[in-house]
Amino acid sequence: MHSSIWAVILRFLWFCGYSNGCESLKDAKRRAEKASKFLAANANEHKNVVLVGHGFFNMLIGKELKKMGWKGKKKVNTTHWHATIFFLDA
User: Fold this and answer.
1) Is residue 18 part of a domain?
2) Is the C-alpha dihedral spanning 5, 58, 82, 74 positive or negative?
3) 50 falls within a domain
4) Which tens digits make up the pLDDT trace of 4-63?
């Protein structure tokens, strides 16, 4: 099978709970929550922060930031070489 088909199958299995020694979706969500708190604390201290990361994980972080009251695009772009801006209303 083509590698992109394997990627879809494995991502589907991961969403269903199969991780076989890798980070689970539940653990990834916990890590995203921790990362969003870290970003928010640093933004509070330094006014601006930048995160460079994997698109899917950035989406998880974006969801957590929105739960914390941050504003941004409704849907975070998960493709390569894209950026999303989040901000807090003052």
Assistant:
1) no
2) positive
3) yes
4) 999 999 999 999 999 988 999 999 999 999 999 999 999 999 988 988 888 889 899 999
Residue 81 lies in a domain: yes
Q: Tokens for 17?
A: 């709970």
Range of the domain at 83: 23-90
Residue 24: count of CB within 10 angstroms of its CB: 14
Q: How many domains does the chain have?
A: 1
Tell me if 86 is assigned to some domain. yes
Write out the DSSP string of 44-75: HHHS-------HHHHHHHHHHHHHTT-B--SS
Instruction: Tell me the residue length of the chain.
Output: 90
How does 52-70 read in b/e, with b if 16+ C-beta sit within 10 Å?
eeeeebbbbbbebbeeeeb
pTM greater than 0.85: no
